Amino acid sequence: MEPEREALNFKFSIINFQLSKMFQRRESKIGEKPRDEFESKLLDLARISHTRAGGKKMRFRAVMVTGDKKGRVGLGIAKGADVQLAIEKSTRLSKKYLINIPIIEGTIPHEVSAKSGAAKILLKPQTKGRGLVAGGTVRVVCVLAGIKNISSKILGSTGNKINNARATIEALKKLKLKNN
């Protein structure tokens, strides 16, 4: 009987040790919240409902743009059962799909255009001091990318924020630096 008791005590001591280590790690993380280098902006939040044979299913769609204002920007679109889940998923996706943008003296190197769905976007470089001449979705993407001087025009006939954001990201992907 005595050896079994010692074996149980040994097992309990190992479990207690593991639990104490686990709680020590958790306590150290509670007080400190690391500062994220990226800034995120919620572009669109929509309530989506699917009608099936069993009834209506409600979900939420979030569109997030994330950037570090130093030439990196990403777009994330995700759906979730509630608003918080959708926002977290879209933020994670926007950080996953970051793109690098060549920025020269606060503007883009050359004129570029792109199309996504019915959205057509034209981006033109501007001289220093002109500012950000862009509206809506394009402005949000350019601010988070760190572009200070740019002129843009939405040529498509759509006001769809998702397609406008996708077209802007596609246009920024096309930017190339001139090799000497």
Structural key phrases:
180 residues, alpha+beta, Double Stranded RNA Binding Domain, Ribosomal Protein S5, domain 2, four-stranded antiparallel beta sheet, four-stranded mixed beta sheet, elongated
SSE map:
Layout: H1 2-31, E1 39-52, E2 55-67, E3 72-80, H2 83-96, E4 98-100, E5 112-116, E6 119-125, E7 132-133, H3 136-145, E8 150-154, H4 161-173
Parallel strand pairs: 7-8
Antiparallel strand pairs: 1-2, 2-3, 3-4, 5-6, 6-8
Helix pairs in contact: 3-4
Structure description:
This protein has 180 residues and is an alpha+beta fold. The model has no long low-confidence stretch (mean pLDDT 86). Helix 3 (136-145) crosses helix 4. It has helices spanning 2-31, 83-96, 136-145, 161-173; strands at residues 39-52, 55-67, 72-80, 98-100, 112-116, 119-125, 132-133, 150-154. Strands 1-2-3-4 form a 4-stranded antiparallel β-sheet, with helices on both faces. The radius of gyration is 24 Å and the shape is elongated.
Average pLDDT, all residues: 86
Share in helix: 25-40%
Query: What is the β-strand count?
Result: 8
How many domains? The number is 2
Helices and strands: which structural class?
alpha+beta
> CATH topology of the largest domain, anyone?
Ribosomal Protein S5, domain 2
CATH C-level class of the largest domain is Alpha Beta
N- to C-terminal distance: 84 Å
Radius of gyration: 24 Å
Name the poorly predicted regions.
none
The shape, in one word, is elongated
* Share of β-strand residues: 25-35%
Elements, N to C (H/E) = HEEEHEEEEHEH
* Number of helical segments with 4 or more residues: 4
Strand order of the largest sheet: 1-2-3-4
Let me know the largest β-sheet.
Answer: 4 strands, antiparallel
